[in-house]
Structure formats: C-alpha cells, structure tokens
Amino acid sequence: MKILLVNDDGIQAKGIQVLFKRLSKESENEVYIIAPDSNRSATSHHITMNGVYKLRKYKENQWATSGLPVDCSCLGITSDFFDFKFDLVISGINEGANIGTDIIYSGTCGAARQAVLNGVPAIALSVDPGIWDKEHIINMKYEALADFAAKNLKELAALASTKVPRAFVNVNAASLDSYKGVKYCKNLCIRDYGDRLHVEKSDEEMKVSFVPGEAVPLLNEECDAFVVKQGYIAVSTVYADPLANEIVDGMRFKL
User: Fold this and answer.
1) Phi/psi at 63 (5° precision)
2) Angle at which helices 14-24 and 143-151 pack, to 10 degrees?
C-alpha cells in the first residue's frame, strides 16, 4: 500500500515521525511524507491559490513545504511530483484532539477532507494529552495509536468514502500506552471554547491578540470526547461534502 502522511504540526513533529517509522516496518507499505515546514495548526481547509510555495527534501521519502496542510494532500494527489497514485492518505498523528467542533478548525482534518474530495481514502489521527501543560505535551504518547493504525489500515480505509457524499475517518485517543478497546462514535461532541480577543486600545494602530479558553466539551456518554476520556479509541466517519437539512414543511417566504 502506498501511503502519504501529512499533518498540520510540521514535518519535525513527533506524531508524524512515529507514525512514519511504525508504518514503514510493514514490508507491504511504501510510506511518504509531505508536511509543512513549521506548525500550521488551526488552518482548517485553507488552500494556497495565489502565489507559489516551496518544497524541499527533508529526509528519504520526506518533503517539507512552506504551504498549508491541505496543500500537502494536493501535492501528493493532484500534482505531477509523484509518478504513481497513493492508496491512502493519513493526516497526523496530531498533537491534540480533533473531536467534535474541533473538526471545523483543524488543519489535520482539513488535509484528510481534501484527500477524499480528490478521490483518495483518508484517515485523521489525533492524540489528546488530557492536560495542556509543558510536561504533558513533551511526554505525549503516540506509539499506541500508531500501532493501532498500522494493524487496522485496511479496516479504517474501508470506512472512508470517495463517492458522494464523501467522508474521511476521524480517529482520536488519549495519550496512553494502551487502550481499553475501540468504539465507533456517530455522536460528535460540542465544544464550548470560551475564546476571546484582546485589543490593546490606542489612538494609532492597535494590536489584537487571541486569548484561548478551556475548550470544555458538553459531554454525553456516546460522543467521541467521552469515549476518549474513558480510555477508548474513538472512530468516526465525517462527511467532507456539505449536507443541508430539509426546511420544515409549511415554511413560507415573502417576496
């Protein structure tokens, strides 16, 4: 299987390098990386359409780009850089969860979404540190989720859909050495971030800075956030195509 790894944390990130090493152990896999040259988190589905960006070799079968996570998927699938087609795109392993509302903002999920839009099955992998402090981030554990992905590539890829309505597979787990099991989650959590902006007021140019909140999930026992918190791997399929609800019968509009 020819596998392209992408991410939004950057090519130097531990998560993608752990995954590359684990997947490369299987003789049937050909593994490649195209990833940003530095952190591009929370870029969602931003794609470079104006101007150019750079691509350079980082290591054997690994390239770094000045572009964005979605650009990485496009480079692997729609460019003339490779003379073959990939069977699978995996985005991650991300430093931090991408559960529920996170998916809207996530560059990790944006890259996976772009892959299925371009006709290649895709999986997004993310690890939740539980506590966001320096110690927990430095000691993030990616090996167990990388091992799970390696053992279940075909099963996970089969959950993705490249036919309309297209969907990618979103996998989240806690930063642990092992897991209690795997649960499929059709309910995704709703996050209440509590973010705000601070403006340094002045009579001239004013500085605006982002002040993050606590990203508190509104839990229910069937959602992905609860499953991860309980020590399970949460697997979900997420639509890449926009789907609209039906308008309530009897609604009338004035012209």
Assistant:
1) -130, 145
2) 40
Q: Which two tokens stand for residue 39?
A: 């952190």
pLDDT digits (tens, 9 = 90+) for 113-135: 999 999 999 999 999 998 888 88
Which residue type is seen at 247?
A: I
Beta bridge partners of 57: 63
Amino acid at 134: K
230: left (phi over 0), alpha (psi -120 to 50) or beta: alpha
Q: Token pair for residue 93? A: 């392993």
pLDDT in tens, 148-164: 999 999 999 999 999 99
Confidence at 245, pLDDT banded by 50, 70, 90: confident
Tokens 């596998």 found at: 3
| Distance separating alpha carbons of residues 33 and 146, to the nearest angstrom | 15
Rounded to whole angstroms, the Cα distance separating 163 from 41 reads 28
| 175 contacts 47 by C-beta, under 8 angstroms | no
Written as six digits, the tokens of 219 are 């839990």
